[in-house]
Amino acid sequence: MTETAPQHLVLVGGGLQSALIAMAMADRDDVRITLLEQERTLGGDHTWCFFDSDLNDDGHALVAPLVGRRWAGYDVAFPGFQRTVPTTYNHVSGARLAQVVRAVFARRPTWRLRLGVAATRLSARHVVIDTGDVIAADLVVDATGPQLERRSMRQCGYQKFVGLEVRLTAPHGLQRPVVMDAAVAQEDGLRFFYLLPLDAHRVLVEDTRFSDGATLNAARLTLEVRSYIEARGWKVDEVIRQEQGVLPLPWVLPATVEPKENRGARCAAMPLRAGYRGGWFHPITGYSFGSAVRLALHIRRTAPHSQGPALALMRRRVRRQQWWLMLLNRALFRHYLPADRWILMARFYRRPLPVIERFYAMTMKPWHFARLVSGRPPAKMRLRPWSPPAGLLPISTPVLTAPSPTASVYRTTRQEASS
Ligand SMILES: Cc1cc2nc3c(=O)[nH]c(=O)nc-3n(C[C@H](O)[C@H](O)[C@H](O)COP(=O)(O)OP(=O)(O)OC[C@H]3O[C@@H](n4cnc5c(N)ncnc54)[C@H](O)[C@@H]3O)c2cc1C
């Protein structure tokens, strides 16, 4: 009896999406995996969070080994409005992700983890790497992360953030994460702080902006984070790590995500574009965890024949959700003044729980979307003056700094810090 050789799956990129695919394939003996990552480490220096409501049972089973901490809810705060949302929130660290993936590869002697190797050209069946060598595969998955190309940059806003994970000299006293503290001075669009209490003394504090331009002034935001920490009466004992990101939030999907060759019959000649690279992300939050899990489960069921009608159907479903969400992005970034963006967010968090959960999970039915947008736009929101179509404009509009919507202790601190 002859044994058939295992199918060869090549994962390009060693970030979140490839890690989840490798974990999902761990029990498929008929497949061997080669993972190529251009950096010397897996997963980058990230933390990822997701809501319980983002995943189904299979998804939860897949990611269980990754989850470091869980909280039974989270807080949001806006001027004049606060809410505790009772949806469980989960935390995954880059270090844990790397550890779990390495353990998966260690158990499978035929699998290859190749760090410090960059792919230079990809097709559905071949990868050319930086040494010029060609690796043949039964399926190539392109999970190389967000690609910010010039054309798409004219049709998106950005979520920009800098976070410091710090150990404090005394307990912070937070019971649960604060996903959005927008009761602060607004600048560079919607601006809020994100707080993740990792243990009694350790907390990740991020200054986040939903901004028109992609430029990140990391040094300035780092100072802002420090000012915020001080304003809360906390003292930093040690900065454990820093993370930052600039995530595109499009109102038109970038051409890199949906090239013509990726549709219809020609799709099979292309690598499978996965993760951020393939447009499997939430256009308003820039989050991709839930979509990445769903795609990994699909590949587990179908590899190496993953580019068939089932994938096309999944993609159509995601694109439908994104289409609605991108309409909101267009309103958020094009129609209203940047300084008023927080008002739309505050309004969103007044919606019923199922609407909030399905919004994040990208599983909205038409009536959830209707509930999301129903009612008059808040009277306080000011429209942007008309401007010529993008392309005739500089890519980023000048930052409009507006007065804080309410007096805030943090604004005072920042003013002091900058004076
Ligand atoms: C700091 C940060 C925090 C985030 N937090 C969250 C969160 O809490 N929840 C959430 O859902 N989303 C979050 N996101 C957004 C999104 O989920 C992440 O960006 C996610 O990592 C995207 O996964 P990915 O696998 O598509 O890309 P990445 O994780 O970015 O991985 C892409 C990998 O491909 C490698 N690569 C690129 N080109 C090549 C090449 N030519 N050859 C070989 N390797 C290559 C890169 O080095 C990188 O390691 C966060 C993003 C950032 C930046």
Structural description of this entry:
The protein is an alpha/beta fold and 419 residues long. The protein has a domain at 7-71 and 89-151 and 271-307: FAD/NAD(P)-binding domain, CATH 3.50.50. Helices cover 30% and strands 26% of the residues. It is built from eleven helices and 18 strands. The chain has helices at 16-24, 57-63, 94-107, 150-153, 218-231, 289-302, 309-335, 341-348, 353-361, 366-373, 409-418, and strands at 7-12, 31-37, 47-51, 67-71, 74-78, 81-85, 89-93, 112-115, 119-122, 126-129, 134-136, 139-142, 156-168, 178-181, 190-197, 202-211, 236-250, 272-273. The strands form four sheets. The chain has a seven-stranded mixed β-sheet with strand order 6-5-14-15-16-13-17. β14 (178-181) and β15 (190-197) form a beta hairpin. The protein is globular and about 65 Å long. The model is unreliable at 389-419 (pLDDT under 50). The chain binds flavin-adenine dinucleotide. Flavin-adenine dinucleotide binds next to α1, β2, β3 and β17.
List the helices and strands and how they pair.
Elements: E1 7-12, H1 16-24, E2 31-37, E3 47-51, H2 57-63, E4 67-71, E5 74-78, E6 81-85, E7 89-93, H3 94-107, E8 112-115, E9 119-122, E10 126-129, E11 134-136, E12 139-142, H4 150-153, E13 156-168, E14 178-181, E15 190-197, E16 202-211, H5 218-231, E17 236-250, E18 272-273, H6 289-302, H7 309-335, H8 341-348, H9 353-361, H10 366-373, H11 409-418
The chain binds flavin-adenine dinucleotide.
